[in-house]
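2.7 Reproducibility. Because tokenized structures are sensitive to small changes in the input, we list the exact sequence used for UDP-N-acetylmuramoylalanine--D-glutamate ligase, including any N-terminal residues retained from the expression construct. No trimming or masking was applied before prediction.
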Amino acid sequence: MNETNNISSTSAPSPLERAGERLVVLGAGESGVGAAYLAQQQGYEVFVSDFGAIADKYKAQLQGWNIRFEEKQHTESEILNATEVVKSPGIPEKAPIVKVLRAKGIPVISEIEFAGRYTDAKIIAITGSNGKTTTTGLTYHILKNAGLNVGLAGNIGNSFAYQVATEKFEYYVLELSSFMLDDMYEFRAHIAVLLNITPDHLDRYDYKLENYADSKFRIVQNQTAEDYFIYCADDAETLKGVGKRTIAAQLLPFSIQKALLLGAYLNGEELTINTPNNNHFIMTITKLALQGKHNIYNSMASGIVSKVLELRNESIRDSMGDFKNVAHRLEHVADISGIRFINDSKATNVNSTWYALEGMPDGKVVLILGGVDKGNDYNELAGLVQKKVKAIVCMGTDNSRIHAAFDGEVAKIVDTASAFDAVNAAYKLATKGDTVLLSPACASFDLFKNYEERGEQFKKAVMEL
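Resulting structure tokens (single pass, no recycling of outputs):
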């Protein structure tokens, strides 16, 4: 394919153009296009390169802003003269263009790192293997309802960089993946939250849990004694990481297993929070909008953030009581013939599925599993499957490892290769009072574009029953 066929020709110099400073953006999704706009606003010469096809929406934005771009290729002559490169978190280190950039010593950073340079807003940064989307959404909900001027970004919402370029928020709540954290160096979180560390994405970390954990702990780098680090005191890997580091921030743990002087803990049925500024908060857990043990942890983390910011208790309670979870994360779809259908398509690893099952009734779950297996150890689910699950519906192109793990452990396992077939099979296996739970424990790329499409097709199939 001729290079010039895929490179846009529109270009307009910025009135603020920095002499000799050229920013290249790899990946033209939400984060990349946002970074390109902010870079142009800040006076860089900007070029965007995507090895795949660029969605029409983003192509139109780049053209409207007169930002040069290419798709379906990486042209080295356009990229290797960069002063700095902003890389999409989805591009792995093993990608050839990234290897060349590293070899040449050209700085490669994330959109979050880049955007963080151009805002003086207070940053609440949230990471973890599981629960970060829910906790980020809940924290944003509490802050916004309390009247704070707050933005939502990272893995959720609109591009952080684009918001920095176009808004004047005083606070940001950011959901950060390990891939984002890997390319962050000077970024500082005023309040950092680490929910948990369980095996995930290990193919990006040489299959070593300690490498993945190190990535998660990058969230505390650059914090000072004026900042706060909120973490789960019941999570073994997190405690191991805290133990081997000197963390400058003030530590605020949370636990459902033991009482804590500072942070959050359970006192019977009461979620109790104490923060260093003598702020105290109590809420009965039965009044939380998010139920289940894992969601008590999520609510604790959000609650600590709220009390660090000295929000009113009444406002926090109202927000924690009326929050609606994000789509595809333990999302109630419908009750049909007395059977409850739950969409947990965002559960792309075993631990997420474990959390989902943990909150389900004993012996009454028809579980839909399967997809692209990332090296899953299904043994972690064995105890919960025996206790909670009456049947498994496999939804994937290769279900052999699910069969190997659970044949003989549940009464029935069936194979399907579409959301429609999976829902219909589950409906036939379920009886009144049961729950059909889509919580795949796998990535979606064998049958779907992403977990969102998987969840939407599941919901559509349910509504067609």
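The chain is about 35% helix and 20% strand.
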